[in-house]
Amino acid sequence: MLGQGNFQPHGRGDRMAAEGAPPFFAESIVFLAATCVAVPIAKRLGLGSVVGYLAAGAAIGPHGLQLLGSGEDVLHVAELGVVLLLFVIGLELDPQKLWRMKRDIFGLGTAQVILTGASLFAVARFVGMPFSTALVAGFGLALSSTAFALQILQERAQLSSPYGQRAFGILLLQDIAIVPLLAMVAILAPGEGPSTTGEILNEILIVLGAVAAVILTGRYLISPIFLFLAASRAREVMLTAALLVALGSAGIMHSVGLSMALGAFLAGVLLAESSFRHTLEADIEPFRSLLMGLFFVAVGMSLDVSLVIKHWIVVAAGVTVVMGLKGVFLWALSRGTGSSNSDAMRIAVTLPQGGEFAFVLFTAAVSNSLLTYQTANLLNAIVILTMLLTPLACLGLDRLAARAKAKGIENPSIETFEEAAPTVLVIGFGRFGMVVAQILTSEGLEITAIDNRPDRIDYARKQGYKVYYGDATRADVLAAAGAGNAALVAMCIENDKVMAKAIDLIRDGFPEALIFCRATDRAHVLDLTRRGVDFQIRETFESSVVFGRAALEALGTPLDRIDQIEEDVRGRDEERLAVQLEKGMYAGADRLHKVTPRKEVVKDQQDVPAA
Questions:
Q1: Of 485, 375, 342, 484, residue with least CA distance to 422
Q2: CA–CA distance, 536 with 518 (Å, rounded to integer)
Q3: SS3 content of the chain, % helix, strand, coil (to 5)
Q4: From CA 583, how far away is CA 579, in angstroms rounded?
Q5: What percent of the chain has pLDDT over 70?
Q6: What is the mean pLDDT of residues 416-435?
Q7: In degrees rounded to 5, what are phi and psi of residue 510?
Q8: What angle, 0 to 180 degrees and rounded to 10, lies between the N-to-C axes of helices 109-126 and 312-336?
Q9: pLDDT of 88 higher than 90
Q10: How far apart are CA 89 and CA 270, in angstroms?
Q11: Is the dihedral of CA 493, 494, 498, 504 positive or negative?
Q12: Do residues 27 and 6 make contact, with C-beta atoms less than 8 angstroms apart?
C-alpha cells in the first residue's frame, strides 16, 4: 500500500482553498516548485530526472516536510503517465518488429520472472515468512519498473539499442505477468476457493473479447476516423482523439482485469503503421512527460523514512538481496541467450529495481489478508530504494567502462547502439516528393515521409509508400518523425512560408542534418540561398532544360551543339543568381538574351586530307 489518509494540503493550502482557489491549486504549486528544484540538481549530479522526482516526493510528502498529505490519491491520476508511456512505446513498434522480439518476451522474460520469483520466495521462506506471504513477496519483488527503466533508457537514447530492446521485452512480459499474479492472490486468499471451470472459461472469454475489441478497433476504425479528423485541420481535435485512443484502450483492458498499460501498448502497436503515428506521438508526449514526473513524485511521497530507519537492517538486507539476485539472473540469462557481456551487464543494472506493479500486488495482498500493513510498507520501501539505487548502478557501470577505455582495455562491444544506414526525412509527398523517394529507395536508403494532406497520404500508401501525417512547422512532430537521426532532410513542399519555418526549426533543433530544398520559383531560390540550405533546385528548371533539349533535337540541332547550349545556359543562370543576390530581383536580365558562341572543333593535322 502506498499510504493511508486523504490527499489534503496543510497550512496555507487550507486558506487558499477557503478563499475559492481551484481544487488542487496549492498542491500543484508545491509539486511544480519541488520538481523545479530537485530534478535539475539530480540531472547535474548525473543521477537522471527520475531520482530527482523521487527525492522531490520524499521531501514534500507526509514523511518529509509534510507540505502534502498521502501520495496515494495522486498516484491514481499519475498512473495515466505509465499508460501513455506504453502507448508511445507501442507506436514505435510495428507488429512485425514485435513478433521478432518474441524470444525475448516469452523466453527471456518468462525465465527471469520465474527464476527470480522462485529464488526470492525461497529467501522469504528461509527468514520465516508464511508460505502465501513469501509467494506474494517473492514474485512481487521479481517485477521490475516499466516506467522507471524505460525512462532511463529514453534519457540515455538507448531504447533502440540491442540491449534496450531485450530489456523492453523483459518488461513487457512482466506487465503481462501481473494478471496471473493477481489471480494467484485471489486464489491464496483465506476462505477463497478456486473458481469453477465454467467461471474460469467465462473470464477467459471476456478477456479474449476485450483484446479482440481493441485489435479490431485499432485495425479497421482508427485510421479512417483520423483521416476524417485531419481534414478539419483542427489540432485540438486530433489531440483529443489521440488521448481518447490511448485511454479508451486502457479502459477496455482494465474493465476485464488486465493491465491498463498493456491495453494502451497494444493500441499503440496497432497504430504503429498508421499514417498518424508521429503526430500521435508528438501530441501525447507532453502529457506523458508531465504525468510520468507526477507518478514518480507520488511514489517518493510514499517512502516512510521513519519506518526505514526503524527497520534499517531488514530494509538494507532486502534491497541487497533483491538487486543482487535480479542482477545475477538478468546477466546470466542474457548471456545464455546470446547477449554480449557488455549488453548483459547493462541489462542487469537497468532492471534490478522493484516495479510499480509490486505496489498493486501488495495492495491486493493486504486487502485479501495475505500481507500485514507493516510488511507491505516494508516491501514498498524496498521497492522504492531499489529505484533510487538503480541510476547509481548505471552510473557506476558507465564509470567502469570509461576507466577500461582509458586503460586501453575497452570491450569492443561496449557501444550498444545499432549501426544504421543513413536515413532521410522527406517532408511533402506530392509528385515531386514521390520521385525523390523513388530515387532514394532505389539505392536501398531508409526514408520517412510526412505530409499534412490526408488525400496525398492515402494515395501514397496505395502506391506502397509509408507516409505519415505531420505538420512540418512543429518541432515535436519533426523530432518524432526522426529528424534528429536523419542524415538529410528533403524539403519537397510547395508552401514557401511553411518551408522557411521548417528550415529554421531544423537548423535550431537538428543542426547536423543536411537540408535539400525544392524551390517554387527564382525568388524562392534567392531566399533559400540566404538561409544557407545545403542544396536547392527550382521545381521547373530541370524539366524545362530537358524540354528545350528535346525541342532542339527535333529541329535538327546536333547533339554536341545542344550540350554546348545547355552548359552555357546553366552557367549564365548561376551568374544571374549571383547578381540578383547582390543587386535585387531584376538585376542580370542581360544574361537572358545571349546567343551561345559556337566552339570550333580543332582537328589533328594527321586527320586533314592531302591536297
A1: 485
A2: 6
A3: 70, 5, 25
A4: 6
A5: 83
A6: 70
A7: -135, 65
A8: 150
A9: no
A10: 12
A11: positive
A12: no
Closest CA to 187 of 260, 136, 253: 136
Q: How far apart are CA 133 and CA 138, in angstroms?
A: 8
- Are 504 and 563 contained in the same domain? yes
**Does residue 246 contact residue 87 with C-beta atoms inside 8 Å?**
yes
Please indicate, yes or no, whether residues 575 and 476 belong to a single structural domain of this protein.
Answer: yes
Summarize pLDDT for 518-561 with one digit per residue, the tens.
Answer: 888 888 888 888 888 888 888 778 888 788 888 888 888 888 88
How is residue 93 written as a grid cell? 513498434
**Hey, CA dihedral for 4, 9, 15, 21, is it positive or negative?**
negative
CATH number at residue 233: 1.20.1530.20
C-alpha cell at 492: 519537397
Asked whether the predicted pLDDT for residue 603 surpasses 60, the reply is no
Distance CA 196, CA 60 (A): 48
DSSP state letters, 335-387? HHTT--HHHHHHHHHHS-S--HHHHHHHHHHHHTTSS-HHHHHHHHHHHHHHH
Domain containing residue 542 = 423-592
Question: Do both 448 and 394 map to the same domain?
Answer: no
Domain boundary among 345, 379, 406: 406
Give the least confident one: 40-54, 572-586, 595-609.
Answer: 595-609
Q: What is the CATH number of the domain that holds 444?
A: 3.40.50.720
Domain membership flag for residue 299: yes
What pLDDT shows up at residue 67?
A: 74
Q: What pLDDT does 7 receive?
A: 38
CA separation, residue 450 to residues 34, 331, 335, 434, 516 (Å)? 39, 41, 40, 11, 15
Nearest to 210 by CA among 169, 173, 262, 284: 262
In Å, how far are 39, 180, 277, 434, 465 from 459, measured between CA atoms?
46, 45, 17, 11, 9
pLDDT value, residue 329: 92
The grid cell for 593 is 538574351
pLDDT for residue 593:
65
Amino acid letter, 190: P
What does DSSP assign to residue 564?
H
In DSSP terms, 451 is beta-bridged to 469
Place of cell 513524485: 297
Q: What is the pLDDT of residues 574-596, one digit of tens each?
A: 888 888 778 777 776 777 667 78
Q: Do residue 154 and residue 228 come from a single domain?
A: yes
CA distance 387 to 151: 12
Residue pair 274/219 in contact (Cβ under 8 Å)? The answer is no
Alpha helices in 45-161 (DSSP H): 49-60, 72-91, 95-100, 102, 109-126, 131-142, 146-155
Question: Is the model's pLDDT at 387 over the cut of 70?
Answer: yes
- For residues 61 and 301, what is the distance between their CA atoms, to the nearest angstrom? 4
Picking from 163, 170, 162, the residue whose alpha carbon sits closest to that of residue 144 is 170
Burial per residue of 526-543, b for 16 or more beta-carbon CB atoms within 10 angstroms, e otherwise: bbbbeeebeebebbebee
HSE-up of residue 268 (Cα within 13 Å, Cβ side):
27
Same domain, 318 and 347: yes
Do 178 and 325 reside in the same domain of the chain? yes
Within-domain flag for 483: yes
Burial class of residue 397 in the structure, from the number of CB atoms within 10 Å of its CB (0-12 exposed, 13-18 middle, 19+ buried): middle
Determine the pLDDT at residue 161.
78
Domain count, the chain: 2
Whether residue 366 is found in the same domain as residue 437: no
